[in-house]
TIGR03564 family F420-dependent LLM class oxidoreductase (Streptomyces rochei), 373 residues
Amino acid sequence: MNTVGKKMGVFLGGTFAQDPGLTNLVDRAVELAHEVADAGIRTVWFGQAADYDAPQLAALVGRAEPRIGVGTSVVPTYPRHPLLLAAAAKTAQAATTGRFRLGVGLGARTVLEPQFGLPYPPQIKHLREYLIALRPLLDGDDAPFVGQTLTSRPAGPTTVAGAVPQVPVLVAAMGPRALAAAGELAEGTIPFLAGPRTLAEQIVPAITEAAAAAGRPAPQIVAGVPAVVTDDAAAARSRVSTALGFYDSIPSYRRVIASEGLSSAADLLIAGDEDTVTAGLRRYFNAGATEIMVTHTDLFDARDRARTWAIARNLCPGTTSVPTGSSRCDRRTVLSHQPTTAGRQKPTEGSGRGPDGQRCTQTSPTRCLLDRE
């Protein structure tokens, strides 16, 4: 299978953040990001739970490790107001010099409503209104928005200097109505626990059709896939089962798991040797994913993480650099790297633009910063 233009990323969820031996969350996130970048992977995603703030952490990590793009996967739209989320996203975009993507999602009513003590709004109506209100705010447009589920009236300027290019918005959409909204109003989707068959038969056609009907470019489809290269697949499954058990109680996840012909979230884990995991991940690209976000590697030791990230890098070798003299820029800022006295590479901006209009270098050596209802 030709993987030109495909991308690989790594999800760092709440598992590492709750390690009993952890002394500083941000320091550890930066350490893991260095590991990811050293392995040749160019995107790191952070989830939002009840502990750290995902956009802030993404901004700090992206600032500390300039070889990677960062994103959130995902921030629930409820009850964070679009004014607040847009401000956080623009700040992250400025902090990372254009290497941030904002992933949002509806969240789970059974979790969010009791957690915040606020009535959960009608989901699809709220998603559509949220995306309509969010995009102008991300672009520094101060125009008010008044809908049925939310109102946004900026009391002052919303522009953030340095928040360029436009922050891409991806929606954790898996059902038909959410996919229609994502295709029409966002840059793509981040489905998690949606297997290859579900991607190919349901998710990819629905969001692609919606984007085309709205006159938008082909959407980004970032598939979240639990995977690990390990010598003990049974032990890996046991460990991941504990982490994924929560999703078996969420109706939207139960539906996509069932549509794959499986009975639990852990059944979607790809675990085994390099050939096994490579073949499993390729199925997602064959199903139409434009990018794979490998999840739950932070559950495992450094050796298993390194083996997993190595096969992820090898799946898409063309996404880590741009050939000398090429005008092709996969996405986001491309930086040339020069050794520093500390041994870590120092990024220096180059010039030129890729076909999507993003700024990129054309000099050698170069390295690309690649970037649920």
About this structure: Confidence is low (pLDDT under 50) at residues 320-371.
